[in-house]
Amino acid sequence: MLRFLILIVILFSTTLVQAQLYSTRSGVVSFFSSTPLEDIEAKSTSVESKLLSTTGQVSFLMLIKSFRFPNQEMEDHANESYLESDKYPKADFRGTITNIKAINFKKEGTYPAIVKGTLTMHGVTKPVTAKGSVIVKNGKPTATCKFPVQVTDFGINGSIVGKELARSIDVTVNCQYQ
Description:
Elements: H1 2-18, E1 21-34, E2 39-52, E3 57-63, H2 72-82, E4 90-97, E5 109-121, E6 124-137, E7 140-150, E8 168-176
Antiparallel strand pairs: 1-2, 1-8, 2-3, 3-4, 4-5, 5-6, 6-7, 7-8
């Protein structure tokens, strides 16, 4: 019985040591919209993200007002007219890297990743699946991915959609974890 308990303690301790929670508060999320009338690009460099190496759980949280646009007028228009950042101040993603076992956090390299989860933006939650990469360098992972978002799926409507703002915008995520 004592040997069994010692074995359980050793197995449990080994599992805890192998689990690594990576995090950042300086992740980058950007989006790009292209229409015949104009291109819109914005970037946030203050995205909070966590990644658990054993389960692949990943989360992102950002304030909509943290997006920076090429000029103040465009930023004000975006926050007031279509992102409605006073009413919907945050966006978040919660999901899992489905192929986490194929990523070796102890060996440098670039590993393909498939992420599935839910994106909440503009008060609407929708499922998202994206392909990306986890790059391990100097013992620290960086997660990157790019995926399209249909703005009307998230309740972003109005006369600007399809004219000034594309119906589908490209979202890019890049997080260097500590």
